[in-house]
Amino acid sequence: MPYSGCVSARRHAVLSALIACVVLGLSCSDGDDDGGAPMAATEGAGGAATERAEPDAAARRVRLLKLGNFDQPTYLTAPRGDRRRFVVEREGRIRVVKGGRVLDTPFLDISDLVITDGESGLLSMAFAPDYERSGLLYVYYIDQQGFITIAQFRRSSDPDRADPGSRRTTMRVPHPRSNHKGGQLQFGPDGLLYAGFGDGGGGGDPDENAQNLGRLLGKLVRIDPRPGGGYAIPAGNPYRERSGARAEVYAYGLRNPYRFSFDRRTGALTIGDVGQDAVEEIDYLPSPGGGRVPRGGRNFGWDVFEGRNRYEGGSAPGHVPPVIAHSQDRGGFCSVIGGYEIRDRSLGRGWSGRYVYGDLCNPVIRVAALRRGRAPTRGTRLRVPNLVSFGEDGRGRVYAISLDGPVYRLARR
Ligand SMILES: [Ca+2]
Ligand SMILES: [Ca+2]
Questions:
Q1: Which CATH number fits domain 4-412: 1.20.920.10, 2.120.10.30, 1.10.10.10, 3.50.50.60?
Q2: Average confidence (pLDDT) over 84-91
Q3: How does pLDDT run across 199-250, given as a tens digit for each residue?
Q4: Which of 90, 147, 334, 357 is in Cβ range 3.0-4.6 Å of 361 for a Cys bridge?
């Protein structure tokens, strides 16, 4: 089969498709692409995603403004309030964009520590909430042993450079395969560090990790990193007292929560959980109010459920179904790319206050009005092939990132 690399990669997960398609020079956005215009219902047997047409002219007044070209960019972030942009490159570098220019010298280069097999690489980073004072930042990468690694670095005397000698290992988790490596780090509004770990790879969670509270794979974890290395367990973690459970677990039943985020205004949590062979999903937990994070201890269902469909036997106690589910077969979805609740008010109606997300194989940027139950979603006119991530800068402006190189800001026309 001439396209087997691409097709089979679609069936599995986020970065493998990129490797197959980028390295082999194939297009993953061919074929059953949905076209980007207002769409018909895209949902399979798991239940329909509610489709809306473009609501008004205001929603069309947003464009992709190119920030620059990078070497396999995987993420963008910045310390809160900072005007610079930090772009993470898969092979292990972090680049600084300052005054509209990409600085020649990377902020950090750990390419000697990082492997890029399968879905591996340097996959995201997070600045400590008190970065201005502490100078601490965290990176998420796959190390030479294939382990998921969260490491801390410290800013150097040059604010545009981290100190490469300041590395401390915060957390290191064995992972047996080259897919479902997770990849997201985020500080929640509670000041704690969250990370999303994939289920251990293969297909169908063969090791049955995601429903097993005694394992870290297939989980969203929450830790309190210690500046000298390692971490403490936060007092409010839901399984802290449960025998046989890992105290780091915040939520479970996840296949590959490759991208998740907190709403910078409300604290609501949104997870893009990459599907198996049928359904791509967005999970959503609203904030209890006051800018707080949602209560932990939720079960998102995998591998008993894929989207709203039954997947394997067994039970998933308290299963929280997704608010958005896209059928892979109808619309060309292969690996959902979770995004951000947009708080950039300059984008105006139809964008501000909506959740932006997309897919690796379907280039259409989508927006949704998140709520419990089933959330309405629509395709926009914006397209980013090989979409690998969204990002948010220090002022809450939102970016879309293509692994092909370009990073774009969502900007008003
Ligand atoms: Ca299984
Ligand atoms: Ca699920």
A1: 2.120.10.30
A2: 98
A3: 999 999 999 999 999 999 999 999 999 999 999 999 999 999 999 999 999 9
A4: 334
Report CA(136)–ligand 2 centroid distance (Å). 33
- Measured in Å, residue 226 CA sits from the centre of ligand 2 at 31
- Contact predicate 24/5, CB 8 Å: yes
CA of 310 to the centre of ligand 1 (A): 12
Ligand with an atom nearest the CA of residue 199: 1
360 Cα–ligand 2 center, Å: 18
Distance 399 CA to ligand 1 centre (A): 35
Please tell me the distance between residue 238's alpha carbon and the centre of ligand 2 in angstroms: 19
CA 59 / ligand 2 centre spacing (Å): 30
C-alpha 308 – ligand 2 centre gap (Å) = 7
**Among the bound ligands, the one closest to the CA of 201:** 1
**pTM for this entry:** 0.89
Write out pLDDT tens, residues 108-164: 999 999 999 999 999 999 999 999 999 999 999 999 999 999 999 999 999 999 999
Q: Identify the nearest ligand to the CA of 210 by its number.
A: 1
Asked if pLDDT for residue 371 goes beyond 50, the answer is yes
How does residue 57 score in pLDDT terms, banded at 50, 70 and 90?
A: low
d(CA 178, ligand 1 centre) in Å: 17
User: pLDDT band at residue 60, thresholds of 50, 70 and 90?
Assistant: confident
CA pair distance 48, 45, nearest whole angstrom: 8
